[in-house]
Specification:
- The complex is a heterodimer of chains A (87) and B (255).
- With 87 residues, chain A is an all-alpha fold.
- Chain A contains three helices and no strands.
- Chain B has one domain.
- The relative contact order of chain B is 0.13.
- Classes of the chains: A mainly alpha (87), B mainly alpha (255).
- At the A-B interface, helix 3 of A face helix 6 and helix 7 of B.
């Protein structure tokens, strides 16, 4: 019994790649939460203001894309960081 | 990487290309060739369009004038005002060049966005970085530029040090870094997405050709290709409009 356990302990597989994969998943998943909510807020408010004042749609659209770009940057940092993590 | 019995190549196979000619340091590979092709295309497009100018534009001249109008009305007049018209050539070239570089992603045979390697976005972000600091210092003087960009107007004295620190980080690091990473990561992610669905479609096709019409392989590949055209345009637009916004902030400080 003890010899079997000792043998199992000696031949532990290398878990680094698995942990790296889990870390990448956590990094990108975590980084996507906030920007997801943020882009939802930005686009939702832009749509409601466009619906109220259709004549200002052009200006609102430009500003909406700016807002999306600023918000999205955080998710993209997470995306790049997930690739930078190496096992 | 093996997932659901499909062999995915490692990431390096998707974006690293062998050197065609030249040495190790200045080697020319497919990405560099595509970048040169974009430069020639943009130059040739505007050269041909402006060679024979007519009052009623037709053909290439029409497209070129629409692009210039879009840059002027959609980007400059909305973010910088009349004064910013001086920067029209820069922003026009920036937009056209980034768009052509991005659109290689969906052109058959090429199928590699130049901006999926970080070198070009990083260089352009550095250019913008130097530029908006230069414009700010030239317009407002060194002290005035520091004051207008670091001290937000109308905040209580107690939290001023914290805000100055945050603004300093934003001005020196976050702005150029996010400009560079946004363009790079969007194109890189799109490239990986297209590769993933191409591999899935090809594998299904090899197993049994009828099942390639399953919803998450070929149809999604077509849809995503269309989406990537939109992303290529949108990223060129966003990079250009952010350049305009940053230069505009240096020109007209917030009161």
């Amino acid at each position: 019994m003890l010899s079997v356990l000792a043998q199992a302990a000696q031949s532990t597989p290398d878990i680094t790649p698995g942990l790296t994969a889990i870390g990448r998943g956590i990094v990108y998943g975590g980084a996507a939460i906030g920007p997801g909510i943020g882009i939802g807020l930005v686009v939702g408010n832009a749509i409601s203001s466009m619906a109220r004042q259709p004549e200002s749609a052009g200006m609102v659209r430009t500003t909406m894309f700016l807002g999306i770009a600023f918000t999205e940057a955080l998710a993209l940092f997470g995306f790049v960081l997930a690739f930078i993590i190496s096992g | 990487m093996n997932f659901l019995a499909i062999d995915f190549p490692p990431i390096s196979h998707a974006v690293e290309w062998p050197i065609i000619f030249g040495g190790d340091l200045l080697g020319v590979n497919k990405v560099v060739l595509l970048m040169w092709a974009s430069v020639i295309l943009v130059f040739a497009f505007f050269f041909i369009a402006s060679r024979k100018q007519e009052l009623i534009p037709a053909g290439v001249q029409n497209v070129a004038e629409t692009t210039v109008d879009f840059i002027r009305d959609g980007i400059i007049l909305q973010t910088m005002g009349e004064e910013g018209l001086f920067y029209t050539p820069l922003l026009l070239m920036m937009f056209s060049f980034i768009f052509v570089c991005n659109i290689w992603e969906v052109i058959p045979v090429a199928q590699m966005p130049v901006n999926a390697r970080i070198a070009l976005p990083m260089f352009m972000a550095l250019l913008v970085y130097v530029m908006y600091h230069f414009v700010g210092i030239k317009r407002q003087g060194f002290g005035g530029y520091l004051k207008s960009s670091l001290v937000p107007p109308g905040v209580p004295k107690a939290i001023l040090p914290l805000l100055v620190f945050i603004e300093l980080i934003t001005m020196l690091i976050t702005k150029p870094l996010s400009l560079c990473v946004r363009l790079f990561a969007n194109m890189f992610a799109g490239h990986l997405l297209l590769i993933t669905f191409s591999i899935i479609s090809a594998t299904l096709f090899a197993i049994q050709w009828q099942i390639v019409i399953l919803p998450f392989s070929a149809f999604l590949l077509f849809a995503l290709t269309g989406f990537e055209v939109l992303v290529a345009f949108l990223q060129a637009f966003i990079f250009t409009i952010l350049t305009a916004v940053y230069i505009g902030q240096s020109m007209h400080p917030e009161h």
